[in-house]
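Dear colleagues,

As part of the handover before I leave the project, I'm documenting each prediction I ran so the next person doesn't have to rerun anything. This entry is a single chain, and its sequence is reproduced below.
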Amino acid sequence: MGSTASSSTPASPRGPDRGSASAPAPPPSASASCAPPGRRDAEASKAAIVRAARHLLARHAHGDITLKAVAERAGVSPPLILKYFGNKDALFSQVMSFETDADAFFDAPVAGLGRHMVRHLLTGQAERGADPILRIVFAPLHGEQGDILRANFRTQVAQRLSERLPGPDAGLRAELAVGMLIGLGVMYGIARGPWVRAAEIDEITDRYAPAVQALLTPG
């Protein structure tokens, strides 16, 4: 998948490599700053473990991922994963859920939801190397676990979106809109199209969001 762009690729200071840039860290919340150091460390470790598991799940079959691999990527020990999550299945049950991601993905009024979702998807890729929905693309890798991933995606993403849409054919419109977003995510984050990645996020959003919004708003 790692082809290099030709010399005709548009030059931009925010070109194909900008996905590796780190977003400025937000100031800690009041609740986080007031938490005891041990609790903050535990939450940070749990978050690192989940991020590592998501990263590996997007690149390897579920059955090939070991707790040791997750621990190495997260910078923790395998026993710590067992302490926090119990076992591999309990950890990946969280990774295969879209519930928390969907909360942020759909956090806008329907009238502006298309723009919000496009921008949220792109900034997640560009600034955090993460994406709220692209895990579904890799479901065929995961055997029975892939069935769980698909079922979660249908109920927690497509169905949840359809329940917010007014007008007829809400289910169909929701699935088509989500399909458009997956396509954009694949081109940006997996295929790493040089023209798309060289464009400003605002430009892509201006071009792409109206087509997504047209599916969300009944004609």
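The chain has eleven helices and no strands. The CA atoms of residues 27 and 33 lie 9 Å apart.

All the best with the project,
I.
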